[in-house]
Amino acid sequence: MAMCVDLYPSSPSTATAANNLVRCLLGAGGTAVIIQMIKAMGRGWCFTFVAAVVFITSPMLWVITKWGPKWREERRLRAMKQEEEKG
Fold it and tell me: pTM for the full model?
């Protein structure tokens, strides 16, 4: 959530609300689907699939950790430049 607020410093409440909305929707979707997945795949394969999804998507955390500060600074500099051009 802190990253969302850092990316949108002019509207932190909107960033927080959007983060909460997406988190709740994903939680509701996962809750709605998991029973059907267990029935169709069985417990072992269902949770193996979930673990595989987590394993495959976890490098995104490394990417954000490595390049996130640079992206944040570039975004801040662009915003400052736009403010200077307006004023």
Answer: 0.66
